[in-house]
Amino acid sequence: MNTAPALHHLNAWEKSTSRGSSLVTPTGTPALDELLPGGGWPKAGLIEITVPNIHTDAISLLLPALARLSQQGRWLAMVTPPYQPRARVFTAVGMNTSKVLQVNPHPGRSGLWTVESMMRTGHCSVVMAWPSCDTEIMEIKLKKAASIGKTTGILFRQERMSTHTSIADVRLKLDVGESGKVVYLLDDRGDKLSGVVLGA
To answer: Quick check: is 153 in a domain?
Structure first.
């Protein structure tokens, strides 16, 4: 039973011809795959997910894909997450937790430098970060690093900090309400294009 009905489209969005190809990782949620250009998470690209606040659980959107990727050899990295991820949530979806890294950079070193370096090396299939600043130069560097390392970079941003035009390959906004999670696809200016209700 499909519990994720699509919302009405607010604007046209041309789907990439790479749908279902090796250029993306399926999300594990059909309605979310349908929403995303290309039909999944880009394997060598930058994703921006805007959340209402720092405590919003956005990793749950990624869990099915992360579980599959954890079986493929490369690392899954979280750089300075704002809360301690619960190991039982990871194991419940079959994730190989021995492939999950939590990285807390040295106080004298930039967290974004760490993110860029980890993405560029190619040792990680996914690098997740919660940046406390919002600059176009940062996105340019991270997008280049994603391409070089064939890595999926994921930036979780608080809504109040995501203000400028973004060059991310995929830009999403997560809202949480009584009906559950609603994910919107945004354009580069932050305007809503379409959305989907994912339930609780």
So the answer is: yes
Cβ atoms of 108 and 159 closer than 8 Å: no
Beta-sheet pairing, 124-129 with 152-158: parallel
b/e for 174-184, b at 16 or more Cβ within 10 A? bbbeeeebbbb
pTM of the model: 0.83
Give the tokens for residue 75. 């690392």
**Chain segment 77-132, per-residue pLDDT in tens:** 999 888 776 667 788 788 999 999 998 877 655 688 899 999 999 999 999 998 87
The mean pLDDT of 137-153, rounded to a whole number, is 94
Q: Do residues 141 and 119 touch, judged by C-beta distance below 8 A?
A: no
- What is the rounded distance in angstroms from the CA atom of residue 40 to the CA atom of residue 102? 24
The number of distinct structural domains making up the chain is 1
* HSE-CB of 147 using CA atoms within 13 angstroms: 8
Q: Is 44 helix (H, G, I), strand (E, B) or coil?
A: coil
Domain for residue 40, yes or no? yes
pLDDT above 90 covers a percentage of the chain that reads 54
